[in-house]
Amino acid sequence: MTRDFEQFPDDENGNVLWQMAEDGDDLTEAHEIEFSIAFQTQEQAEKCALYLLKEEQKISLFEDEEADTLEWVITIYVYMEPEYSDIIDIEEWFTKIAEQHGGEYDGWGCMAYVYDDEDFEEEIQS
């Protein structure tokens, strides 16, 4: 399969989507994509979490004790087809929300269903 650089641009998001396609993942099917925002304080994270809930987003909030510094992470679950331009748009929106609440947008990931001799799942993240 030859890479279409209009569909899969040569950047981190395009590379992840291309790898998913190369692995046999059907990108025309909706996936639950997980976008993350990280915060240094619980208070900042909770304020952002409330904002996201008011925006009708499905989220989880947890304290990441394994990070180098104490960190609170919000994961936003968006059910969508993993299409490059849509991911870019959502990343821009979550980046603005993160900045407004003192956090930092921290990327996305999703479960990719890869079929080989045996069925198994592999998690791919950008």
TrEMBL record:
Name of one Pfam family that matches: RraB
InterPro entries: RraB-like_sf, RraB_dom
Domain Regulator of ribonuclease activity B: 11-110
SUPFAM superfamilies per record: Hypothetical protein VC0424 (SSF89946)
UniProt-recorded name of the protein: Regulator of ribonuclease activity B
